[in-house]
Amino acid sequence: MKHMNSEVKEERTSNKKRIDLFLVPIVLIAAFLNLFKIWTDEYANAYYTAAVKSMLQSFHNFFYASFDPGGYVTIDKPPVVFWIQTISAKIFGFHGWSVILPQALAGIGSVLLLYVLVKRTFGVWAGRFAALAMALTPIVPAVSRTNNIDSMLVFTLLVATWMLFRAVRTAKFGWVLAAFAMIGVAFNMKMLQAYMVLPAFYVFYVVATKITWKKKIAFLTTATALMLAVSVSWAVVVDSTSADKRPYMGSSQTNSVLELAFGYNGINRLTGNTSVTGSSHKQPAQAQQQTASSETKQTSNSNAESSQSSNQSKSSSSQKMQAPGGGNQNGMFNTGNPGPFRLFQKGLSDQISWLLPFVIFSIVGLFAGVKFKGPYTAKQKESLFWLAWLLPVAVFFSIAGFFHQYYLIMLAPPIAAFAGAGAVALWSMYKQHNGWKSWLLPSGILTTAALQVYIMSPYVSSIGVAPIAGVGALGVILALVLAIRKERKNSVTNYLGVAAMVVLLAMPAYWAMTPIIYGGNSMLPAAGPDSSSGMGGPPSTATNSKQSGFNGMQPPGSSDSNSSSNNQMQPPSGSSNGGQMQPPSGSSNSGQMPGGSSKNNGQMQMPSSSSSKLSSSKRKSGGMNAEVNTKLLNYLTKNNTGEKYLFATTDSTSAAPYIIKTGKPVMAMGGFSGSDPILTVSKLKSMIKKGEVKYFYLSGMGKGGQSDVITWIKENSKEIPSSKWQSTSSSSQQGPSGNGTLYEITLK
Predict the structure, then answer these.
(1) Count H helices, E strands: the chain?
(2) Residues 299, 702: contact at Cβ < 8 Å?
(3) Who contacts 640 (Cβ-Cβ below 8 Å, separation ≥6)?
């Protein structure tokens, strides 16, 4: 701490030609959090892992990011991240860890990039604190330990930020073009989410560059045009290719990448609209369980409503999750209810908001005395950049109709940057007795400790009272002592400052380790003592470990005598970017998951911390379908007479594990969640006559817009006796419940 008051230029000179030894342990911490035990996740996110398996088999599948080896339908995202994952799998072999590795390395790279970005202007100590805050932000390692896209997206946007900062320092237009082109690359990772940083890029370039307004407008217009060209380059190629020469664009209703970008992966995120059968309707902010999300387009089992309503009403009171200090529900996927304080609500706050109060005080300190018309210092300009990143993204997540917890990684860079820059700035103001500004440091420590106590309070049964009381007590004591000693200058005060930062980072560090301690969830990654559930809410009082989290669910074709348990959770249809998991509610729908049988209450039960610990054996956590029914697979393989597809099923949930296991084409007739209007009866007849497919596994999941096709299959097929293919293995396996039926159709 005593070095914080050094001038930025002196710090830069003294550290220019040697490795920053303080950075080494920070990078090692990030490496541990992002890499340790990723080899235990055998399937990762099965939806995406199946796509990598398919992309390894041909350039056609690779270019289009085909979900299945047969090139029937693509995944619901652009291909760039999956190109990288496929290259990794090609180099290291096809494993769960090899498809996770690029994201884990991106998480580490983001820590290093943030250090470089903050250090140059705010000083080496600011860079160190920012890097450490980024590494310990819980949602960062939680996402980076999976094959979801967001970690790579953030890394790419930070690369673009580095290019923009260099463009301003060197006054070279080429770096501006490179920065905006990199955002275009990010668009081809997760579409419109990449554009969330554009306000920061525009504002910073306008404020920071010393050129005429005419040149600013011309340069930004040209850079934006390049960004748009890069953004739509893949989409234009795909959409201009004849539909019969490429896979169907998954999760679109018109077989169009652009529709996918601006609808399903775009505006619908903000509005919360759902699109299940080609029509849209608004998703209520309270996210009632009878509707599907815009991402999963999940279909409920209407037959379960009447039989479940009474059981659900009995259990809803015990399953309802109360927010600290009140509140009825925790919103869809524990993302809270829209409003100005949403990021402080349970389910989101423990993923990203641990340091938000300190960040707010830091912003006040960094912008204190700034005049609207300038001139601005380098620190103020870059602070404005991070603020223009932070505020629009925070506003989006405060009002958005639908998103998952792990999307919050988009907030990690600006929060970490302000934590680092603010720590140095507030410390300097404190040491210099700079009037009211000198009170910002102790005030920030006190309010941040108070928020952390609030965040941890629902988890007292998992983590105990001691850490909660410890953070609260130490935060109050250190803040008060710093306030009392404000007029003194000695080493004791320096140590108190260091101790305060350690206290504020202690529990985020523990939360960041929970995916390692308790096991993570590759489908819906989230940090916390219940991280293996992927739900990010407080642990339940579940006592039966076989009914917690994803345990107790079987693969297609298996049966279990315990399947009628009221507490058994029915799986969502898909992946982390698609697998909707509905929170418990007393609604008429009873929280039924897709594919649930009428015998099952469909009630979702959160795992207890004791039952969610990661075992030493490999986890097949690729959604709910990470196990293969060996008997079904053997039957289909033995009776295949040259058909292209091993079998067809309604959606990706049942198809993914068989693609991963065999590398053979399995047709997800309705795409990811079974709602894509890909197949018609006439097209299916033609495929059957050509000998492309003859077996159909129907589980009642994801019918969506495929009802006519499914009806025709049932009316024109021969049902295969379950004794020939249905496994009798019990609940030790995971996957969709074994309520499906296998059909065979042969047309002359």
Answers:
(1) 27, 7
(2) yes
(3) 646
Question: CA–CA separation, 728 vs 561, rounded Å?
Answer: 9
Three-state DSSP state, 744 = strand
- The structure tokens 């463009």 sit at 167
Residue 372 CB partners (closer than 8 Å, separation 6+): none
Q: CB of 523 within 8 A of CB of 514?
A: no
Of residues 370 and 592, which shows the higher confidence score?
370
370: confidence class by pLDDT, cuts 50, 70, 90:
confident
Task: Name the band, by pLDDT with cuts 50, 70 and 90, for residue 375.
Answer: confident
Q: What angle do CA 354, 355, 359 make, to 5 degrees?
A: 150
Coil vs helix vs strand at 41: strand
SS3 for 281? strand
Beta bridge mates, 667: 648
Helices marked H in 564-676 — which ranges? 630-638, 652-662
Q: Could you give the 3-state DSSP secondary structure of residue 700?
A: coil
Q: What is the Cα–Cα distance from 746 to 748, expressed in whole angstroms?
A: 7
Residue 139 CA to residue 339 CA, distance in Å, equals: 21
For strands 695-698 and 741-744, give the pairing. antiparallel
Geometric angle at alpha carbon 652, from 595 and 535, rounded to 5°: 65
Give the model's pLDDT for residue 380: 95
- Are 147 and 100 contacting, i.e. CB atoms less than 8 angstroms apart? yes
